[in-house]
Amino acid sequence: MINKGDIVNFYSTVASFQKDYRTRNPGLVIASKVFPNSAKSSFEKNSAYILWADGSMTREYTSYLEVVK
Fold first, then answer.
1. If you ran DSSP here, which 8-state letter would residue 66 be given?
2. Rounded Cα–Cα distance for residues 33 and 2 (Å)
3. What is the distance between the alpha carbons of residues 33 and 3, in angstroms, rounded to a whole number?
4. Phi, psi dihedrals of residue 14, rounded to the nearest 5°
5. C-alpha distances in Å from residue 31, one per residue of 13, 22, 35, 37
6. What is the pLDDT of residue 46?
7. 21, 4 in Cβ contact below 8 A?
8. In sequence order, which residues have a C-beta less than 8 Å from that of residue 60 and are 6 or more positions away?
9. Is 21 helix (H, G, I), strand (E, B) or coil?
10. Residue 2 domain-assigned?
11. CA-closest candidate to residue 34, choices 43, 21, 22, 25
12. 61, 41 in Cβ contact below 8 A?
């Protein structure tokens, strides 16, 4: 689970998705939202607002985020 305050990296097996985040990683989770009663694929509906290392901010599906350990 992704929580506010977590340090995360964007990750995807799709190279075209990953390339835009190479200079952004890592990021700080500013807020996250969980929708436990949403559609069957609810894990894709969970999202987080990320402040990236390059200063940009985006909203990402949590399925594309990995917590930095």
1. E
2. 9
3. 9
4. -90, 110
5. 25, 22, 14, 19
6. 87
7. no
8. 10, 47, 48, 50
9. helix
10. no
11. 43
12. no
In a domain, 1, yes or no: no
14 lies in a domain?
yes
pLDDT of 50: 98
User: What does each of the 69 residues of the chain score in pLDDT, given as a tens digit?
Assistant: 899 999 999 999 998 888 888 899 999 999 998 777 655 554 457 899 999 999 999 999 998 999 998
Please give the single-letter amino acid code of residue 42. S
Range list of β-strands (E), the chain: 7-10, 27-33, 47-52, 57-61, 65-67
Q: How many domains does one find in the chain?
A: 1
Within 13 Å, how many C-alpha atoms sit on residue 55's CB side? 0
